[in-house]
Amino acid sequence: MNWHVRVGRRWITRVMSPLFLTRRYELVPTFNVARSLKALLTNPDGLSCSSPQIPVVIVTPYGNTAKLRFIYDTGADLMVIPVYVARHQGIPFRTDYPGRIGSSLGGGVRCYYDYVQVRSSLSGKTHRWVCAFADSLQARLILGRAGFHDDFATAVEGGHLVVRYRTSLGGFLKHLVTKPRVPEKWLPI
Amino acid sequence: MPTTPTRLSEPIVLADLPLPPDVAGEIETYCREHRLHGRQREDFEEEVRLSHFFSGNYVVAALGPRGLEIHAIDSEEPDGIYELRKRLRAEGNPDVISLIPLPWKDPITRVGYSIYGP
C-alpha cells in the first residue's frame, strides 16, 4: 500500500507494510506405519507426516452454502470434489467438460470440470475457482493450487498451516473486531 | 466402521465413542510426549476419534457444545443435507461441516490424495 504525502511543492511516496489477515490450522496428525519404515526408523509409531486440512464454504444455488473440509495438497493442480459429495451437498456441475483425473503414480478416473464459488470470511469475497468433480468413491476432498494460490498465500509454520490474505487497513480493522463463534480449526477460510 | 449409507435418527457425539484401550494408550503417550494439554489435547483426540471410527467415510457433522456430533455417514440422499441444515439452524446450531477423515495410521506412502486407493 503506498501513501502519497506532499512536502512543500513535492509529492513523496511512502510505502506502507502490507496488511494480512491470517488463519492458522493445526496440522491433522497422521503417521506412516509401513513395517519397513518403522524398522528403518526403529520407532514403533512410524513416521509423523501430519496433513494440512482446511474448511471451505462452497456456495450452492439459491444462496445456500456447504461447508466441507478439504485436504490441502500442493501436488494437486486444482480443487477436487467427489461426484457423490457434490450430489449430496447440492453443488451443481455440468457434464459438458469431461476429463480424467489421475495420481502421480498412474491410474485415473473420469471427472467433470466446472467452476465452483467459494465464499471466504477471510477475504470477505466470493471467489470463482475451477474444480474437478471426480466420479469415484475413492476420491477425496482436495484443495489444489489453481484458484486458491491465486487468491491466498500459505505457509506451514510450527505445526500449523497458515493461510494469509492481503487486505486494506479497513478490512484489517473490521476483521479485528469480528469474534469467531467456532473453534479456529473449523473456521472456513 | 459403517459400510452402508446411514442417516442417523439421533446424532453420535464423537467424544462419547469409546476408544479401544490400545488407541487410548497411544493418545496418552503422544500427548505426554508432545506436552499436549487442554484445547490442544481435545483437538488431537477429536481427530484420532474421527479417523478411528470414520476414516474413508463421508461424514456430515455439526459443531455442538461437546464437540463434533455425527449426523450422517455415507449418506447420498440429496435432500438429506438440506433438511438437516434447516433443522439444526432452527435449533440454533447453523454450523454443519462435511468431511472424509483420513486414517491417522496408514501403512501406504501417499504422494497425493486425489484418488485414494486401498
Largest sheet of chain A: 7 strands, mixed
Largest inter-chain interface?
A-B, 52 and 40 residues
State the separation between the terminal residues of chain A, measured CA to CA.
23 Å
Percent in strands of chain A: over 45%
Shape of chain B: globular
Fraction of residues in β-strands of chain B = 15-25%
Could you say which structural class the secondary elements and strand pairing of chain A correspond to? mainly beta
Proportion of residues in helical segments of chain B? 25-40%
Mean pLDDT value of chain B: 84
Q: What does the overall shape of chain A look like?
A: globular
**SSE pattern of chain B:** EHHEEHEE
Please give the number of β-strands of chain B.
5
Quick gist of this model?
The complex is a heterodimer of chains A (189) and B (118). Chain A contains 4 helices and 14 strands.
List the helices and strands and how they pair.
The complex is a heterodimer of chains A (189) and B (118).
Chain A: E1 2-7, E2 10-15, E3 19-26, E4 31-32, H1 35-41, E5 47-48, E6 53-59, E7 65-72, E8 79-82, H2 83-89, E9 98-103, E10 106-119, E11 126-134, E12 142-143, H3 148-151, E13 153-157, E14 160-167, H4 169-177
Chain B: E1 6-13, H1 21-33, H2 38-54, E2 59-64, E3 67-73, H3 80-90, E4 96-99, E5 105-106
Antiparallel strand pairs in B: 1-3, 2-3, 2-4
Describe the structure.
The complex is a heterodimer of chains A (189) and B (118). Chain A has helices at residues 35-41, 83-89, 148-151, 169-177, and strands at residues 2-7, 10-15, 19-26, 31-32, 47-48, 53-59, 65-72, 79-82, 98-103, 106-119, 126-134, 142-143, 153-157, 160-167. With 189 residues, chain A is mainly beta. In chain A, strands 6, 7, 8, 9, 10, 11 and 12 form a seven-stranded mixed beta sheet that branches. The mean pLDDT of chain A is 88. Chain B has three helices and five strands. A four-stranded antiparallel beta sheet of chain B has the order 1-3-2-4, covered by helices on one side. At the A-B interface, strand 4, strand 7, helix 2, strand 9 and strand 10 of A face helix 2, helix 3, strand 4 and strand 5 of B. Strand 4 (31-32) of chain A pairs parallel with strand 5 (105-106) of chain B.
